[in-house]
Amino acid sequence: MYDKIIPPSKITLPNGKVVHEKKSRTPIIILLLIIATIISVRFTNFEMSVLVSRISEFFVIIDQMIPPKWEYIDFIWQPLMDTIKMSLLGSILGSIAAVPAAYFAASNVMSKPVAAVSKFLLSILRTLPTLVSALIATFIFGLGTLAGTVAIFLFTIAYVGKLLYEQIENADMKSFEAMEAAGMTKIQAFRYAIFPQVLPNYLSTSLFCFEGNVRYAAILGYVGAGGIGLLLDEGLGWRDYPSVGMILLMLIITVYLIEQVSEHFRKKLI
Amino acid sequence: MDAIEKQLNNPPWNLRYILIVTALVLILFIWSLSAINLENMGQSGLEIAASIIGGILNPDLELLFNFTSQGVMYLLVETMAIAFLGTIIGAILAIPLAFLSASNIVPKPVAGLTRIILIVIRTIPALVYGLMFIRVTGPGPFAGVLTISLISIGMLAKLFVDAIEDLDTSILESMTSIGCTTFEKIRYGIFPQLFSMFLSVIIYRFDMNLREASILGLVGAGGIGAPLIFAMNAYRWTEVGSILIGLVVLILIVELFSNRIRTKLVRG
């Protein structure tokens, strides 16, 4: 359609042939981006002058966080461990539950309608912000770590499930067909032909998801779903910034260590 | 014994290693089981679950298709605006940081230091940044934009670095040999290699930012989060239903488009 509005330029080659050179689409894309930016600036009341003149306020809180309140560490251990437990349990159970979910959503091992419905359910689950599912979980399971675990569990199913069914769909189907032809059931053939193919990637995805989940779990306490977020919320509410600094410091160290360990194993897997 | 025989006698997979890792995971799993605490579970849990599902199935259609500044549509556009502007600012800020942490461009210590800074930026939860920026701009979507741009830096820079470290330097050498200036080398040697990768990463991050922007309302940084949380805390489930439906549909549509554009970008 674009070529009809702005016709491609004609170039006559020395041998008399006429070739069409399509006009670049870059100007129109840039124009659209600029319009979108202007609209966004309007909608969000973005003002550079405010940002420049008041940016020092941003560092006021950081300034108060340093030095962190070291003795606060005694209060941090328990919630920090809760956070790790929540994300660990949610990730492990979620990754296990993701296998059947991905099996049902892969269109090469399941019939098309079943696969489409499962894919749709998985994407809805994935789009729900973790904080929202955590809040819903606190209504159902009460305040505490269980609600957070459920929220992380749901997110992990959706995330690992999606990546897993994509891998299953890209897997080599020849051995699967051969095994079915030899008289295996579908599930048996899946277990011995496809599962070994996707296993390393599946474990790596699960580990990666766990890394991210630790970070998510840290804020779940905000809605009462347990873990270190509760302390964070409290500290920010009381403007007790040195304690907040200590919490963040511990969080950064924990996340860094977990990332390092998981990266080590992920490199081994691939 | 020669190497081939040795290889033959080696077990195909290291059983002891796998057993130890499995045992470790099991121990961790059992340790984490204590996160399940049922004593807080009230009687009303199932009742609330039923009313949540009921609310989502019977959404408040008037609110959903309301185009005034209180309606779902307006809030969704605002959320998108926050995510869009935040992504652009974040991408601009992430590019220099990415070059500073690419170990094939700057010396190792500088790269290491920048990486640590990036990890620190990435780990601090978005809500904390939200509160800090509200001090700067006052509550509203402006604070949301700044928060989104700051939290996207971490991941954007990390993915940019992967692209930069994969740069094909032989092109640069051949350009030097035919006498290109530094600017020409950047424009024709580096830029075309990086541009589509960067764009694909940025679009992917926009996808994620839309999700992040939808929860920032919790601290008052604009977007659809605040009305959603208020409605939930007030048990107005039909409202919750209409907001969630709007949000999910928007995110799914954006994801569909961004996936299309990204496959096009990657395959050329």
From TrEMBL, chain A:
It comes from the Bacteria. Coiled coil: none annotated. Its main location: membrane. The keyword Phosphoprotein does not apply. Signal peptide: none annotated. Residues 80-262 form the ABC transmembrane type-1 domain. It is found in: Cell membrane. The keyword Glycoprotein does not apply. This is Phosphonate ABC transporter, permease protein PhnE. Keywords: Cell membrane, Membrane, Transmembrane, Transmembrane helix, Transport. Belongs to the binding-protein-dependent transport system permease family. It holds the Pfam family BPD_transp_1. It is a multi-pass membrane protein. The lineage of its organism: Bacteria, Bacillati, Bacillota, Bacilli, Bacillales. It comes from Allobacillus halotolerans. The chain crosses the membrane at residues 26-44, 88-108, 146-165, 214-232, 238-258.
UniProtKB/TrEMBL annotation, chain B:
The gene is phnE. It holds the Pfam family BPD_transp_1. It is a multi-pass membrane protein. Residues 76-258 form the ABC transmembrane type-1 domain. It comes from the Bacteria. The chain crosses the membrane at residues 15-36, 72-100, 112-134, 141-161, 186-206, 213-234, 240-258. This is Phosphonate ABC transporter, permease protein PhnE. NCBIfam families: PhnE. Belongs to the binding-protein-dependent transport system permease family. InterPro entries: MetI-like, PhnE/PtxC. It is found in: Cell envelope; Cell membrane; Membrane. Keywords: Membrane, Transmembrane, Transmembrane helix, Transport.
